[in-house]
Amino acid sequence: MKTRITELLGIQYPVIQGGMAWVAEHTLAAAVSQAGGLGLIGAASAPAEVVREEIRKCAALTDRPFGVNVMLLNPNADEVARVIVEEGVKVVTTGAGNPSRYMEMWKNAGVKVIPVVASVALARMMERTGADAVVAEGMESGGHIGQTTTMSLVPQVCDSVEIPVIAAGGIADGRGMAAAFMLGAEAVQMGTRFCAAKEAIVHENYKKKIIKASDIDSAVTGMSTGHPVRCLRNKMTRRYLELEKSGAEFEELEKLTLGSLRNAVIDGDVTGGTVMAGQISGLIKEEKSCREIIEGIVRDAMLAVQEKGALWEN
After folding, report:
1. Residue 163 forms beta bridges with which residues?
2. What is the CA radius of gyration of the chain?
3. Closest by alpha carbon to 30, among 66, 80, 4, 56?
4. What does the pLDDT read at residue 299?
5. How far apart are the C-alpha atoms of 129 and 136, rounded to whole Å?
6. Which site among 58, 253, 272, 280 is 20 to 30 Å from 66 CA-CA?
């Protein structure tokens, strides 16, 4: 499958792994890249030297392209941006802010910059800033979300920019990939599906919770604060939603979730921790290798298109 994204990034398949905090470390990123997709290291709020170490470890495991996801609200973002250039990383995805202040430095170093956007206005702004592509992420995704669904967002973004669009949110199999391409996307980004990859360092409790999830098992916390987060329902989400309903102060809500993502991903606390995962969790029935995930989704997407094409011809 060749698209403008595969040509831009030098990858075999138009499949990108989400830059998830605590999940997207060097082992997973390298495995995704080795399988023909684009693996991402999630810088999250990590210090720059930790990110540097992750980049070097990933480079030791694969000679294929990989990237770094930079959360622009990270207080270490300036240092992380420089480390990316110093270590020769060629792809950056960004979230939670505007990467314009780093654009000249990155472009001069040959870095491909791909911001994650949740609106048409932001996609247009990123194109004017010099972005090489954008990830249009719908609210079905896990973690921090916007307000528009993937089905609605992707075609509108595709109609509004000239640069390639990557679809994200609610995609876990070939049917989702085929649908994204029909909407105008030229690649897909998946997060939740790779949380349950064999190579992911995610605690088994976290993986099992995703695999056992049904279509109605996700909840959105933080709507009252303006920072909505989608995760799987548990004791923590029930308490959080109760506090929100009662009009609790932001500080009280923040205290409840402080360190909770790490607790779930690393320690396996899926009762009191935050299990960030998308609405697509109900489609994930087993743990697979990154290669099985990527080759399977590409194969099934092509079959889906062929089958529907034959139906329409009839």
Report:
1. none
2. 18
3. 66
4. 93
5. 16
6. 280
In the chain, count H helices and then E strands.
14, 11
Query: Hey, what are 306's tokens?
Result: 């062929």
Encode 196-221: b = buried (16+ Cβ within 10 Å), e = exposed.
bbebbebbebbbebbeebeeebbbeb
Residue 187 is encoded by which pair of tokens? Answer: 């690649």
Instruction: Supply φ then ψ for residue 97, to 5 degrees.
Output: 150, -175
Residues listed for the chain? 314
- The confidence score (pLDDT) of residue 74 equals 84
CB of 172 within 8 A of CB of 193? Answer: yes
Per-residue pLDDT tens over the stretch 194-245: 999 999 999 999 999 999 999 999 999 988 888 899 999 999 999 999 999 9
SS3 127: helix
Residue 102 in 3-state DSSP? helix
| Strand ranges for the chain from DSSP E | 15-17, 39-42, 66-71, 91-95, 112-117, 134-137, 143-144, 165-168, 187-190, 218-221, 229-232
Query: 136 pairs with which residues across the strands?
Result: 117, 167
The answer on pLDDT for 256 being more than 90 is no
Structure tokens of 232? 């799987």
One-letter amino acid identity for 5?
A: I
